[in-house]
Structures are given as structure tokens and as C-alpha cells.
Amino acid sequence: MSKMKKVLVVDDDQNMLQLLYAFLRDSYHVIMAESGKAALECLRSQKVDLILLDYLMPGMNGKETLEEIRKDEELKDLPVFFLTGVSDSTKISECLKLDPIGYILKPIGKFSLLAKIRAYFEEMELESL
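^ thats the sequence. predicted structure below, dont judge the formating
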């Protein structure tokens, strides 16, 4: 059996972090960060396999966080799903220019989220064969 994948969940809403942790904990090693700045610090100290990134956060929003990730030579290729309630088409377009692997609108159910993450990891496994 392969080792459990690490997923970094970035959201300033403590309730959302706890909910996502509950959704993911049985399938993934979950790391949580409450801000873009905390996420960047975390990423510089440990390797993750996937990031779930909120858009609306104080200080550094999700788009700005992903811009910083993409500028960093060590982090630039990390797969990122935006997981957010922001449905404004202009903001979504700006985020998609940063090449996330997906843009998931909240609210999302546990099984839908797990299916999207599992499909991504399965696709990556097939591409590596």
C-alpha cells in the first residue's frame, strides 16, 4: 500500500478547517493553515502532495498565495485546488491564469470533494506509468 498523501488545507475559517479535516482525515494526512502566510511557511518546511486553497482570506488572499507559490522555484509545480465560495467570474478567471488543477465552489459535500481529489491522484498515477 502506498503511503498516505499529504494535503494542505488553507482557510481562515476555523469551522471550515475542522469540517475539511473531518472529510479528509481517513484518506489523507491533513495539514492545516489559517492564512496564506502560514501556508507558505508550512510549504517551506515540509512536502505536500496537494493544496486546497481558499480565496477570501485576510492579509494574503488565495490568489496572492498561489502567485507566491508559483514564483518559488521549489514550490511552483505544486498542485492546487481552489476551494472557495467566490463565484465572481472575473476573480475565477484571474485564478485560472495561475494554473490551479481545479476551482471548486463551496459548499461541497464530503463525497464530491473526496472524488475530485481521488480522481486527481489517480490521473497523476496513470501519467507516471
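DSSP finds five helices and five strands in the chain.
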